[in-house]
Amino acid sequence: MTPILHTIVVGTLSYLTLIIVLRVSGKRTLSKWNAFDFVTTIALGSILGAALTSTKVSLAQSITAFVVIVMLQFLITFISIRSRKVLRLIKSRPTLLLFSGQYCRAAMQRERVATTEILAAIREKGMADVEKVHAVVLETDGSFSVIGSAGDNDSTLEGVDGFPGR
Question: Which parts of the sequence belong to the YetF-like N-terminal transmembrane domain (predicted)?
């Protein structure tokens, strides 16, 4: 088989296989990225790239590599749900950046978040007054959660780094 034909055949079949494997593996594989998801996605892209450009990589190798990466991702997430140690190893914790209208400057510096980013997140929620914001949390996927008013017990802030608790 010529290199061009190999790229067309193996690339097409690898691409289709990747789509099928991702669909079968569930929504977790395609969730918002944290560092663990980023590594998985890069690995899958690298495998697809090798399948498309290298005549030394067979279709069987590509499919096996896709399945191995997705199965490892599934296995690690399966274990992380059952083990706090594994969960802490692969996922960061959310971080409190603003609480009761006050910036958590040390957390902002540690997470490399600028005040302007927090203000943008607050504006996105349609809020105009920082002092009326109960909390802004930097989530594990890098997104911001804005909580507009205090609840009775702040239960959504449990497990957030920097939450003083009550």
Answer: 12-79
